# Entry
Amino acid sequence: MIQKIFLETLKIVGLVTILMIVIEWLQIKFEDKIKKLLIKNPKNQIIGSSLLGAIPGCIDAFLVVSLYSHGLVGFGALVAVMLSTAGDEAFIMLAMAPKTALQIFAVCATLGIIGGFITEKIASKINLKRAEPCCIDIHKEEFDIKHFLEEHVYNHIFKKHIPQLFLWIFFTLLTVQFLMQRFDLESILPQNKLLLILLATLIGIIPESGPHLVFLTLYSQGLIPFSVLLVSSLSQDGHGLLPLLSYSVKDTIKVQIFTTLFSLLIGLVLYLIGI
# Structure
């Protein structure tokens, strides 16, 4: 069993690595254009941030947090990107369930836009205060292939992300497989759908991508419905919140309140209509 799971993990990590390298290159290449589009129009901020969040990985969330910390985008844009992003687990979703992944990305991007505009209206009505913008200039290095391979591929993707992703995937698959052999999960989980939605929402508060893998693995085994996976994707922000946490703890808490309540609301609606 362990050998089979190890090989399955290697296969997933291999696909994830290729996707991460391609998307990281595209993001770096078009970073300046993305910034201009977001800053140009207040509506673009929310729509653009949500669409960026739907792109696999955390770097787009980092970009929006950076713009927010410099006072260039609003609170609605920040919530929008956090609702739509699934962090590094987006890559794993593409590897394990590509069709479902694309559906999740599309729905999360749409709900991120809706949630962002709702948040912006609420923030303006209650006069929500934010931390003072940071005035530190962002140092941008010239793009070249050597720098990209050394800093982004090796130091960022291979050293920082891949070992962690490998461990999360391996032990999640191993744990789920062990539980499936010992317990009749299929008869237990569907009876607790509402509890699963609540659990998916609360686990999403953790500023880490890994816990989301539990729901993705259970879904791939046909043990939980699409709605639970969607709520988990909506609620969790991957590593996207970590830079915001270093900038302002209060703003981080406010974002978490908005994203958690919105995700729970969506989950309850899906539960009531039987999805």
Summary: The chain is about 75% helix and 0% strand. Residues 135-140 have pLDDT under 50 and may be disordered.
